[in-house]
């Protein structure tokens, strides 16, 4: 590490010696041809120059220390200000990032038909976003059940996929969607709805579930597999704010 004090002392001595030499040179040059200058006068002058040299050295040293102290205070203040600025920036950035993370945080849910089913939406709001239950959504609208399934509930819905509806002859499906067959369509759809929220762990083997249309469904469990009237649940526990949906691969048909 460089010794600043040592460098300073050497610099001052060089400067003062240089100035002293110039003064002595000028004195000798001026009095070189003067016969009135004797040795005692020369010694006296030298003594004065030496005294001045020491005084100047001391004065410059004091000035240097004052300047150095002021510079140190200035650097310290600047460093503190820069630290404060950096800290404030980091704090603001951290708060901003935190807000972004909170505002941009994705809600967890279950993926159905290419869309995330989330608990903050109701059963119908979730269903309309899934691309594999479009026929069910159309049937619910045709039967006038949108308002019911959007209400507080809670409900448990066994939701057939589009592929499930394809197992029904197209002509039969078209007839069910006609206004004059609304009561029959409603009966089929409400056969898939249970009053109350029944997640998969509550669907016990052999349980009888009374549907909204008045008939019952039978639960069968084989290990982790859950079946309703022999139809396997494909995607269980799709939670909504007014109940739960279990996706199935076959349309459940009540006794007509």
Extract low-pLDDT stretches: 33-37
Rg calc: 48 Å
> If you average the pLDDT, what whole number results?
77
- The share of residues in helices is 40-55%
Strand tally: 9
Structural class: alpha+beta
Major sheet: order of its strands? 4-3-9-8-7-6-5
Largest sheet: 7 strands, mixed
Q: What is the count of helical runs?
A: 8
Shape: elongated
Strand fraction band? 15-25%
H/E topology pattern: HHEEHHHEHHHEEEEEE
Instruction: Give the oligomeric state.
Output: single chain
How far apart are the termini?
Answer: 98 Å
Q: Care to describe what's here?
A:
This protein is α+β, with helices and mostly antiparallel strands and 256 residues long. The protein contains 8 helices and 9 strands. The strands form 2 sheets. A 7-stranded mixed β-sheet has the order 4-3-9-8-7-6-5. The chain has a two-stranded antiparallel ribbon with strand order 1-2. It is elongated.
List keywords for this structure.
52% helix, single chain, alpha+beta, 256 residues, elongated, seven-stranded mixed β-sheet
Short description, anyone?
Helix content is 52%, strand content 18%.
Give a topology summary.
Blueprint: H1 4-31, H2 39-103, E1 109-112, E2 115-118, H3 123-127, H4 134-142, H5 146-150, E3 155-160, H6 162-166, H7 170-176, H8 182-190, E4 193-195, E5 208-210, E6 216-222, E7 225-228, E8 231-240, E9 243-248
Parallel strand pairs: 3-9
Antiparallel strand pairs: 1-2, 3-4, 5-6, 6-7, 7-8, 8-9
């Amino acid at each position: 590490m460089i010794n600043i004090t040592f460098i300073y002392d050497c610099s001052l001595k060089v400067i003062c010696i240089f100035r002293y030499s110039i003064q002595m040179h000028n004195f000798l040059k001026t009095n070189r041809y003067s016969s009135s200058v004797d040795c005692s006068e020369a010694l006296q002058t030298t003594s004065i120059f030496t005294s001045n040299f020491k005084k100047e050295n001391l004065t410059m040293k004091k000035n240097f220390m004052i300047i150095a102290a002021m510079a140190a205070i200035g650097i310290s203040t600047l460093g503190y200000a820069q630290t404060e600025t950096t800290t404030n920036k980091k704090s603001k950035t951290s708060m901003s990032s935190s807000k972004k993370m909170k505002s941009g945080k994705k809600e967890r849910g279950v993926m159905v038909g290419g869309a995330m089913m989330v608990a903050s939406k109701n059963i119908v709001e979730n269903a309309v976003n899934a691309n594999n239950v479009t026929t069910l959504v159309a049937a619910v609208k045709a039967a006038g059940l949108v308002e019911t399934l959007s209400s507080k509930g809670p409900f448990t819905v066994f939701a057939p996929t589009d592929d499930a509806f394809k197992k029904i002859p197209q002509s039969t499906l078209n007839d069910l969607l006609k206004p004059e067959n609304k009561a029959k369509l409603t009966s089929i759809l409400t056969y898939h709805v249970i009053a109350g929220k029944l997640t998969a762990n509550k669907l016990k083997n052999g349980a009888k579930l009374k549907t909204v249309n008045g008939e019952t469904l039978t639960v069968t469990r084989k290990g982790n597999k859950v079946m309703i009237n022999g139809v396997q649940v494909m995607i269980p526990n799709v939670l909504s704010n007014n109940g739960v949906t279990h996706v199935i691969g076959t349309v459940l048909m009540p006794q007509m």
